[in-house]
Amino acid sequence: MESASLGSTPPPWAKAPPPKKAKPYEARYEYEIPSKKPPETHPAGATVCASALPRNATEHSLMQCVVCERPLCSTEDLAFFWRANKQGGVEVHLMLKPENQEPATFIQAPITDKNAMASWQCTCGFKFGDTRAVAVRKAEMSAFKSSSIMLCGQRFTGRKSQWPSIYNRPPFNAIEVRTRDTFFGTTPASGSAS
Ligand SMILES: [Zn+2]
Description:
This protein is 4% helix and 24% strand. The chain is mostly beta strands. The protein has a domain at 59-178: Metal Binding Protein, Guanine Nucleotide Exchange Factor, Chain A (Beta Complex). The radius of gyration is 27 Å and the shape is globular. The model is unreliable at 23-34, 36-51 and 189-194 (pLDDT under 50). It binds zinc ion. Zinc ion (ZN) is lined by residues 65, 67-68, 70, 122, 124, 126.
């Protein structure tokens, strides 16, 4: 039996691939895939944060290096951590929200401060913060001294932290305040409280 059923062997002209002509020069662009940036790496191997600075960021919504005024991150990335301490006082820290990774503007310092897990410096070399395991249940916290940064376009003088006195005043009161209960964000507390 002949098995030459119709269509099993297409005629030669149907099989032939279209002649490969060089595309007109301008046609290239139609198919150009947007080039992906190679992943950025830091000399110190710091992790790069995916979130870039907001396009419309002004100095009023920025944390900047106190020395060179380079933007370091948006105030959206920050929170004040408020807690009563054992001495009966109140501590207020300015920290990177724990759910955020250090942005690319945070360069891990070659020398880590004593008791810190990482120290962070600006491109200009000025050290503006440390990560320490001192927050809720020894959670890591990347915190910034008021004398090391500019916040909302303002500088703070004095070695004493200004955060306890200004965190609840405009424009700084736009920055989220977290407590021991909300340190990790607004995830609803599960019923398994110990
Ligand atoms: Zn700087």
